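Form P-L/3: holo structure prediction, ligand acetamide.
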Amino acid sequence: MNIPQFRFLLLAVATLVILSCQQEKEPRVLNLPKTDLTQADFIPKPVQVTATKTAFPLDKYTAVYTLKDSTEFGEVGKLLAEKIKEISRLDIPVNEDTPDQESVIYIKRSDSLPMKNKEGYQLKIGKDSIILSAASAAGAFRGVQTLRQLIPEKANDTITEYPIWPIPTGTISDAPLFAYRGAMLDVARHFFTVDEVKKYIDLLTYYKYNTLHLHLTDDQGWRIEIKSWPKLTEVAGVTEVGDAPGGFYTQEDYKEIVAYAAKNYMTIVPEVDMPGHTNAASVAYPFLNGNGKTPQLYKGTKVGFSTFDTRKDSVYKFIDDVVREISAITPGPYFHMGGDESHATKKDDYIYFVNKVEKIVQKYDKTMVGWDEVATADVDSTSIAQFWASAENAERAVAKNMKIIMSPAKKAYLDMKYDLKSEYGLNWAGYVPVDTAYIWKPEAYEGIPLKNILGIEAPLWSETVSDISEVEYLAFPRAIGYAELNWSKPENRDWKNYKVRLGNQAPFLERMKVNYYPSPLIEWKTEKDKKIKKD
Ligand code: ACM
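OUTPUT (holo model):
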């Protein structure tokens, strides 16, 4: 290269550098649309929202920074960036040195109110920064879900030549009403794969659920590998309702579900239903059986015909092994022993059995949960009753000072049909349309004192559904309503207001490919016309 050529090159490089510096320095004057934070379609509705009626630009200049000394907070930041990418395709840097970034999201720890609650958080959204404060990573994670709900599904591309997702500014202070916000999936009547369970977790997470109860065993199949009793899955994992081949989780599969749930700040509650609902176990190991008949694999939907032999020591040795193996791979505090509909077990035998199983569960450092019938036994106040059918049993549980999980079938069973048009579901507890599922007060139901209530769990029994799409049909949109009953204060809940916010969930549900039931009670704000006419 000769000297003039070299000079020209130098000049060109210098000009480029200056131009690019100028571009970096140029202040962004954005005329973002005025948006009102108090009008956002939050579900569940936060405790307190105030609006400043400007907007934060989520765009290619956004960065996320988190508390330096906490890997958990760092992970929450990465999860936020992943979720932003799913909706926007933006690659938001997390904890990287990026001086160009002008709209910054900080996730930090704070112990001031309302962050005292371990899932509480505060969001301060300004024109160029968002500060998410929480006492724990769990609180920050819940705050991230709120922030996700503020990101428009479609970018605004009329302001600049690049897309911007305007987020309304203001302050949100929030904490949950109930500590236990659960759903239950019956993987026994029909089996669901690890990926299907993960998708259910993803959807529940968006609405701030924190517990997933897996009904792992029933008459029709045993779904969890127990290494010391291999025939449970070899022999009794291969059937389900109907003619499909069933299936089961290896312990590695189960650990994968538990880890995925933990990443989403969700606890897995394993259930081994007994002494009834045990036909499958007795087919694998006939000595367990207590109903005097030879057990055969069962693909039907009747209940109440099976029981363990409650007076045999070997049965308790078996149960000890099962509880030990499952507890060892379950980090959460609970073990659910079922206990429902044991119509083939004598009353005295039932009480004897529940008392013995409670001790086994406690031996492995777990808190026993059981369906409301367990309150008829001499259970400890530390055990938990799940109210599904009998107000009398709920009363017994209160008298024993037990905590109660609220799952009244008439209101909270996700497997009840919505109405006459429902494709799936049962109706033994009545139809549960979307308004019936929402319009009730878990904190004042059947006279159960608030101090005993842990929260609502919405069970989904799977006699009539065989894949995740059919599960979604029953769960959505009703599961969204239970999320609000569980999280939001009674004075922040209102059916008329809720149903508008629910209709506005359609773009999210469709992006997530959720096969929700387009209830005619709701005006769905969707591009595809999923509306069912009211005729
Ligand atoms: C139940 O629905 N059998 C708890």
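COMMENT: Residues 3-25 form the longest helix (23 residues).
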